[in-house]
Amino acid sequence: MSVKSVTYNFTSRKRAFGNQWLIYSNKSQSILSLLSDREVAHWVLNLEFCPEIKSFHFDDFEAEMMTVDGKVTTRYRLRVEFDSRVEFHKISVEKSNANRAQEELFDSHLWRERHVRFKHFSDEDFHYHKQKIFPLLKLSAFLTISRDQYLPPNLVDSAISHVNKFKSGTLLQYLSALTEYSKPSAMLQIYRMYNAGDVVISFEETPFSLDSTWSLRNE
Hints:
This protein is of the alpha+beta class and 219 residues long. It has helices at residues 37-46, 97-114, 123-127, 133-145, 153-166, 171-177, 183-196; strands at residues 21-25, 30-34, 53-67, 70-82, 86-91, 116-121, 168-170, 199-202, 213-216. β5, α2 and β6 (116-121) form a beta-alpha-beta unit.
């Protein structure tokens, strides 16, 4: 085992830890087999809580195209279905100039032939939001252990009514409007709405902070 994690460049967890993960995705309602910490970072930052994504699938995929020099192939790990488009995602440590040129050709080819976008993600893409990786993993874990938790219909209706009426606010304001219900239950409901793409939650250090803000999607 290496001294440092392969995600050393974009996480604060600098000691070695397992590079293969089995993670439950509440968005896809399935167990994901992720082959590196880097794939975990991509999943939690760009997939699990992205409101535009309808579904995604990890596997060992291959795309090909014909050029004047013959058939060219490239591997990628992920197929993503958005509201209005499909994307193929490649995930690696870094991007080389040679790869960039070839991937631009693949993107143009796939868009022309299949209306699909090809995107390559590397450490430089994750670095800017690295501080959000572990807070979002904790939120995902909370949703997973609570996925069978019953919430009374009145609470669900009250939460939906509140976000539709006010469009945005802080989690503290949201909880203040639902004081007749327990705090954990009210928080679970808005986090489920976040995971489903109905609201967007913005936070500095943790989504569990009461000064975190929420907004109705597309508002």
